[in-house]
Amino acid sequence: MYVINIKRPYQQPVFHIETDNQNLYDTLKTAYGPFICDKTSPEDEIFTMHFLKSDDQAGEGIELQIIENNLYSLTKIKENFLALHSAVVEKSGKAYLFLGATQAGKSTLTAYLCNNGLNYYSDDIAIIDQNTLRVYPYPRAIQLRDGGAEVLKNNGINLDDCPVFSYGDIKRIVLTPKLPASSVSSAEIGGIFFIKRSETENSAEPMPVFKSFSALMESLYVYEKTSVQLISLIKKLCGMKIYSINYKDMDFVKKWIEQM
């Protein structure tokens, strides 16, 4: 029996998974490498799941989907932190957040920027201190779909040495950007970008406050009960530089960050 613990920073519970399926075990190690731990702490909340090959009636792949669904639906963020569904890069001590719908290109854009001089913070979640509004790194490896990997290859980024996990219908190329020494600290927010991939244009426009507020509320990583504290925090974020960006060239986003 294989045993694995997934302990993500700033989040509970710890996911304790037991399985006799080596492919599932190897896939989880590849996907969640930095967050795999041998031991848990007494203060950790533990959520246990068991997966046996003999119980699999739906074909390989459903177990990974169940784990991913639970990772999202059961997650609780550490007190005094806010989590947004966002990719994050850092430059000169400032964090730049990329928010958008699934397949808006967040992971692909992040991988491109980190291969072209910016520092990697996260490709999936922005961890924000509610008191200081500073962003903390969340160094899970970037998981690329085939389409995103093809875009990067067409832009001269070599992914040949990247590990690949394939489980059922799920396939991802796993890219682990090099983390800078400064990534152990945190960064102030330099800009928040709601991005959308375009076939025809590069454009950036400031988002009105009312649109920013709604878009940020819709981008919460986990469900947060509406409260005076949450509304006040989102209003503070609305005071940041927030832009709606359509891009057909990833270098357009890089230049936009550099001139901010």
Compact overview of the structure:
By secondary structure, the protein is of the alpha+beta class.
Descriptive overview:
With 260 residues, this protein is α+β, with helices and mostly antiparallel strands. It contains seven helices and 18 strands. It has helices at residues 22-31, 62-73, 106-114, 146-154, 209-217, 228-238, 250-259, and strands at 2-6, 11-12, 14-19, 36-37, 46-51, 76-77, 81-85, 87-91, 94-99, 119-122, 125-129, 134-136, 142-144, 164-167, 170-175, 187-197, 203-206, 242-247. Strands 7, 8, 9, 10, 11, 12, 16, 17 and 18 form a nine-stranded mixed β-sheet that branches. It has a four-stranded mixed β-sheet with strand order 4-1-3-5, with helices on one face. It is globular.
Throw out a few tags for this protein.
18 strands, 7 helices, single chain, 27% helix, alpha+beta, 260 residues, 33% strand, Rossmann fold, 9-stranded mixed β-sheet, globular, 2 domains
